[in-house]
Amino acid sequence: MAERTRSGGGDGTRRGARGEERRAEIVRRALEVIAERGYRGATLAAVAERVGLTQQGLLHYFPTKEALLVAVLEERDQWDTGSARPTASGGWPLDLLASLVEYNAMRPGVVQTFSALLGESVTDDHPAREFFTRRYERVRAEMAATLRGEFGDRLPGGLTPEEAAPLLVAVMDGLQYQWLHDPEGVDMPAAFRSFLTLLGRSTAPRD
């Protein structure tokens, strides 16, 4: 009896692992479809076909299109932070932010999808609106902690970290739009390092 119980537990663990792998694959394929068609044009049927499932099979993992969208956005944020850890103050080192901008410059498809969804989400009925609202609240707080850890309670220009945090976020996201429109004319990593210089902190490019 004990052996059967252990075996059943092992089977359950394997099934759970396979389920997580399948969910991760669905999220990756959904990201591809959204990048190609935009959120409005990305149907569950198209995602299901891309991953080799029926639409009903896809609904077993994500009961609604909105649930899948939020999973895609959360996964994108996980890719951004990776194995990095915030500082004791709760922020992220400026060097890490500069590295993140460089990393994003190597994956235009992901940046395009995020930027398109961000633009669409300003409408009242968009399912990603709440996600981005909460995300920006969190990111502004993290950027304020980053700036406080770097400069203290006042930046060289006199702004507080809380006053400068929305500007830092705006530069990071705004540069992505300019770069997507003109990748040859806008060196996104170099422009971000220039902004850090304006803040009073010079970050050298990585080798």
What can be said about this structure in brief?
By secondary structure, the protein is mainly α.
Give structural notes.
- This protein is an all-alpha fold.
- Helix content is 73%, strand content 0%.
- The chain is built from nine helices and no strands.
- Helix 1 packs across helix 2 (44-51), helix 2 (44-51) packs across helix 3 (55-61) and helix 7 packs across helix 8.
- The longest helix has 40 residues, at 2-41.
- The model is unreliable at 1-7 (pLDDT under 50).
Note the topology.
Layout: H1 2-41, H2 44-51, H3 55-61, H4 65-81, H5 94-104, H6 108-120, H7 129-151, H8 161-181, H9 188-199
Helix pairs in contact: 1-2, 1-4, 1-6, 2-3, 5-9, 6-8, 7-8, 8-9
- Note the beta-strand portion: under 5%
- For this structure, the quaternary state is single chain
The N- and C-terminal alpha carbons lie at a distance of 60 Å
What sort of overall outline do the alpha carbons produce when their principal axes are compared?
Answer: elongated
Low-confidence stretches: 1-7
Q: What is the percent of helical residues?
A: over 70%
Radius of gyration using CA atoms only: 20 Å
Structural class: mainly alpha
Q: Helix count, per DSSP?
A: 9
Overall residue-averaged pLDDT value = 84
- Tell me the total number of β-strands: 0
Question: Order of helices and strands, N to C?
Answer: HHHHHHHHH
Largest sheet, strands/sense/barrel? none
